[in-house]
Amino acid sequence: MSKTRGGGLLRIREGGHARVTYVELFFDLVFVFAITQLSHGLIGHPSLLGVVETGLLLMAVWWAWIYTAWVTNWLDPERPPVQIMLFLVMAAGMVMTMSIPTAFEGRGLLFALAYVGIQVGRSLFTAWSVRHDRGLKLNFLRITAWLAVSGVLWIAGGLAHDRLRLACWAAAIAIEYASPAAGFWTPGLGRSRTADWTVEGAHLAERCALFTIIALGESILVMGATAAGMDWTPVVAASFASAFVASIAMWWIYFSFTAEAASEAISHSDDPGRVARIAYTYSHLLPVAGIIVAAVGDEWVIHHPVGHADPKISAALIGGPLLFLLGGVLFKKAVFRIWSPSRSAGMAALLLLIPVSPLVSPLVLSLLTTAVLVLVGAWESLAIRRRGHQLRG
């Protein structure tokens, strides 16, 4: 990629890979805490309402993180003003994350204020930082306008209670998730075009891969902490082993050929901004959500490995891998313009387990879902190896 315009706090791109900096890795630690809070919240509130509330909070956490990842794709994190901005976002992120367990109770306003402060404050800073690049400046002014509108609903929800809070926040997150697809169209400022976005695909791919590692790390923490507090009977050991192998399989699937090749495909795309928007801003949330849900299911299985799997355990054990694979299917379609046969077949196999789930124990269902993930990983690895042999031949 050629050297970017604008100078100042912008990254200098001269064709090389814009590496992920130490301050970005430090920034991610806040979101390790956030993922932990979300998974524990879902464990403690496994009702339909709890799932909806946790899902909404996850969407907000992801949006705060991915917008920052986009910003550091343009701005240079090694410049002191950018680092100060990231530290301030981290501080607000800690407040937001500490508010997650009671966001729909007593700390709703605190969560909303912290979240809106992150989104609006970071976008205003970025608009100022890129003020010499008219295209980027207008882009971030449009983003700020949309975030300000949704921010009113976030704060209104924080002041409201119960279902009204949920309705306000659902409307706010709907506005924010619609805004990139709408090109952030703003009266008087026009619309952003993805063709104008200078994207360093390798950097964005690496940032999202690291967030996936965060989610997988949380799943290992959950299963490890749960198993450590149990008597190590054969069924508990088998439950832990199944959960651990499932985490390895998800890592295997994610970090196969796709993760490396995606950045290359994006850099050679006619419209890299559009591809990155679909693949990373939108699609990438699904694998993260799937890992979190699967980790919750693993915790329940380790606690209750025998007997019949109740609906919540079945939903987590099947739904987690299903979300993970669905995200992978959509990601491959966005980046490579192909439907993944291995991941699609894995999703079909998981759906076939739904009628079986009430008839088997949680441990058996866990072993079955883990087997599906392992088979998908093996299928993809064999396909990649076969493709490599064909290219060398």
UniProtKB/TrEMBL annotation:
<feature type="transmembrane region" description="Helical">
    <location>
        <begin position="166"/>
        <end position="187"/>
    </location>
</feature>
<keyword id="KW-1133">Transmembrane helix</keyword>
<feature type="transmembrane region" description="Helical">
    <location>
        <begin position="110"/>
        <end position="128"/>
    </location>
</feature>
<feature type="transmembrane region" description="Helical">
    <location>
        <begin position="140"/>
        <end position="160"/>
    </location>
</feature>
<keyword id="KW-0472">Membrane</keyword>
<feature type="transmembrane region" description="Helical">
    <location>
        <begin position="235"/>
        <end position="257"/>
    </location>
</feature>
<feature type="transmembrane region" description="Helical">
    <location>
        <begin position="313"/>
        <end position="331"/>
    </location>
</feature>
<dbReference type="Pfam" id="PF06772">
    <property type="entry name" value="LtrA"/>
</dbReference>
<feature type="transmembrane region" description="Helical">
    <location>
        <begin position="55"/>
        <end position="72"/>
    </location>
</feature>
<feature type="transmembrane region" description="Helical">
    <location>
        <begin position="208"/>
        <end position="229"/>
    </location>
</feature>
<protein>
    <recommendedName>
        <fullName>Low temperature requirement protein A</fullName>
    </recommendedName>
</protein>
<feature type="transmembrane region" description="Helical">
    <location>
        <begin position="278"/>
        <end position="297"/>
    </location>
</feature>
<feature type="transmembrane region" description="Helical">
    <location>
        <begin position="21"/>
        <end position="43"/>
    </location>
</feature>
<feature type="transmembrane region" description="Helical">
    <location>
        <begin position="84"/>
        <end position="104"/>
    </location>
</feature>
<keyword id="KW-0812">Transmembrane</keyword>
<dbReference type="InterPro" id="IPR010640">
    <property type="entry name" value="Low_temperature_requirement_A"/>
</dbReference>
